[in-house]
Amino acid sequence: MSDDRTTVVVITYNRRAELLRTLDRMTRLPERPPVIVTDNASTDGTADAVARHFPDVRLLRPGRNLGAVGRNLAVHQVRTPYVAFCDDDSWWAPGSLAGAADLLDRHERLAAVTARIVVEPDGTEDPIVAELRDSPVRGPAWLPGPALGSFLAAATSLRTEAFRSAGGFDARLWLGGEEELLAVDLATAGWWLTYAEDLTVHHHPSVLRDPTLRRTHGLRNTLWFTWLRRPVRTATRRTLHLARTVPRDTASLRAFGQAAAGLPWVLRERRVVPQEIEGRLRLLDETQRRSTARRYTG
User: Fold this and answer.
1) Closest to 218 measured CA to CA, from 188, 194, 265, 252
2) What pLDDT sits at residue 294?
3) Which H helix or E strand runs over 254?
């Protein structure tokens, strides 16, 4: 069941064993997708191991850690109409890439399809799935699933040209909640995002991570996004809410400091979203305040 519609893009940094497991899964898929790996300057032999064990995988070595922009670098090399992302500790289930491509084929204004996430080794559903399934965003009747206001890169297949035209991931956000800005820019351009219950991505969380750094970047990026795209009143209210509710620790303090330091470029590039998009974001704000699966802001 080979399928030439989707290229898989993976970014990695110092997770050699996890990446090799992911590539073993991805290269055995019945769709036989092309796979591109951007190695973000790993120092543990990751790139050499990929070249040795998976010679058919296209390997990019930018020589520095680009964070999420490593995906942009890979997408420049993509020649298929769709691109699916996964992390070095996650992989798509057999048939799910083809299922996402089918949905994108059928709906020309659909930019992104996010799959159900199953956490391994227990096979349990990621808590974020319930929020995707019950998204408050109202979509058009033709949409094949719940409309989303954002997406999870590790479990999403996108229309390649939509990704490129929206500019991909912003280099200054680096990594941590970087999807939110891109998702809103796609929506502003008239694209829709959806969740697909019958598609699956498996996630086996790596132990090689720095959760404090990720939370710092995620909170900083949330603040930057808020002031880049939301009206002043909303941005002020959301900033104050975060200041009251995030953990009072060094990571949060550092995040607010980094966000403040970036204020000049944020104000320079600020583009408030149309009222329709702001309405969707307000619905999502309420969901996030009740969320038990918030990954970066609390």
Assistant:
1) 252
2) 46
3) helix 250-261
